Amino acid sequence: MAEYRTFTNDDAMRFADEHSGLFGDHSKLSCEEFGDGNLNLVFRVSNDKGSSLIVKQALPYARCVGESWPLTIDRARIEAEVLLKHRKLCPEHTVEVLHYDAEQAAILMEDLKDYRILRSELIAAKQFPHLAEQLASYMANTLYYSSDFALTGPNKKQQVGKFLNPELCLITEDLFFTDPYCNHERNNIHSGIRAEAQQLWHDEVLQAEVAQLKADFLSKPQALLHGDLHSGSIFINDDNCKVIDAEFGFYGPIGFDVGSLLGNLLLNYLGHFGLTADAAARETQQQYLLAQIETLWQQFSRQFSALMSSECREPALQNSLYQQRFMQQIWADSLGYAGCELIRRTVGLAHVADLDTIGDSAVRGQCEAKALKLGRELILQRHSLSSMAQMLTLLRYQQG
Ligand code: SR1
Ligand code: MG
Questions:
Q1: Which atom of ligand 1 is nearest to the CA of 71?
Q2: What does the domain layout of the chain look like in residue ranges?
Q3: Which of 98, 225, 302, 345 is the most buried if burial means most Cβ atoms within 10 Å?
Q4: pLDDT band at 25 (very low <50, low <70, confident <90, very high)
C-alpha cells in the first residue's frame, strides 16, 4: 500500500494477512472494527479456525472529537516503538507488536482474546489476585531500565530524542493540567458538581501545586513512560495482565505512570459508592482495591529500589542516600499525578465509566465530589503524606 488512507475492513484483512504467517487462506478471513477509544480505528481480523489478530490504525484526527481536532499519525510509530521497547524490558506484561507500517500508521498485534479490559472488570466488581504485583513489576522494569540508572548519558539522550511526542504530550498538558482549573469549553461537568468545579477555577493554592506538577511533566525526562496508564490500557485475566495503547509514551517523570494507575484505582474505589448498591459487596470490593493500591506501591518501590542498589552502573547515582531521596520524590510525584487524574477524569474532556455509568444522578454527583476533594488533598499533601498507610488513612477519613 502506498499513501495513507483510512482502512476499510478489507484493507485491515489484507494488512494482517500480508504481515503475518498466521492465516494462510485470505478468502476465509473476517473482520470487525470495534474501537471505542478516543483516538483510533481498531480491527479484529479472524480466520475460520479461530485465529485472530488486531490491526490498529491512527486516524489523522481525534476520533472522539472529529476532524476539527487534527492529530499526527506519527503517534502510531511512538506507540509501536514504546511497546517494542517495553516488551523487551517486561515481556510478560506488554502486548506483542508483530508489524508496524509507517505509511499507513498501522500496527499489527496479538489479539488478547483470553483477556478483558481491566476497567470494565473492576466496574463489574471482579477481583484479580495478581493485579498489583504484575503491574508493579511492569512499572519497575520498564521505568528503571529506561532511566539514567540503567542507560549511559549519550544513549539516554538519544532515547529521549527518539520518543519526543509533542502533539500527544500537548493533549495531556492541556487536559490534565490546564482545562480543569479554568472555565474551558472542552470541560464536561455534571450538573451536580458545578459549584465544586467552579471552586477549582479560583483555587490559587491548588493551581500553584498543579503548575509545579505540570512543569515537571514538561521538563523531567526520567524514564520512558507509557504515558496513559489507566485501567482502559490494561488487559487482564485470572493469571496475567498485559499493557496496551502506548501512544502517549515519552520520556517524563516516573511518578506520572505510577500516579495515573493509582488515580484510576482510586476512581474505581470511589465509583463503587454508586456502582455497588449492596453494602457488604461494596465493602469487600473496596477493601480489595485498597489492598491492591497498597501492594502496588510496596512492590513497585521495593523492586525499583532493589534495581537501583544492585544494577546501577553510573557511579554517582549509586549513592544510597540519593536513591532514597529519589524514591521519596517518585512517591510525592505519584500522589500529585494521581490527584490530577482524579480531577481531570471528573470535570475534564475525557471521563471514565467508573463514574459516568453510575445510574443515580445525585449519587453520581456525590461520588464525583469525593473524587475532586480527594484529588485536591493528594496534590496539596503529596509531600507531607509520607507513607501509603497515611494516604489510605486520609482516604478513609475523607469518606467517613
Ligand atoms: C483526546 S484524547 C483524551 C484522552 O484519551 C486518552 O486515552 C488520554 O487519556 C487522553 O487524555
Ligand atoms: Mg488510549
A1: 1
A2: 9-110, 116-398
A3: 225
A4: low
CA distances from 295 to 2, 83, 110 (A): 49, 25, 29
Say if pTM beats, i.e. exceeds, 0.90: yes
Whether ligand 1 lies within 6 angstroms of the CB of 64 is answered as yes
Q: In what order do the strands lie in the sheet with 40-46?
A: 30-33, 40-46, 52-58, 106-110, 97-101
Cell matching residue 264: 484510576
Distance CA 229, CA 341 (A): 11
What CATH class has 9-110?
Answer: alpha beta
Tens of pLDDT, residue by residue over 355-391, are 999 999 999 999 999 999 999 999 999 999 999 999 9
CB-ligand 1 contact for 257 (6 Å cutoff): no
Topology adopted by domain 116-398: Aminoglycoside 3'-phosphotransferase; Chain: A, domain 2 (3.90.1200)
Task: Please report the atom of ligand 1 found closest to the CA of residue 230.
Answer: 9
**Distance of CA 335 to CAs 148, 156, 267, 390, Å?**
22, 26, 13, 12
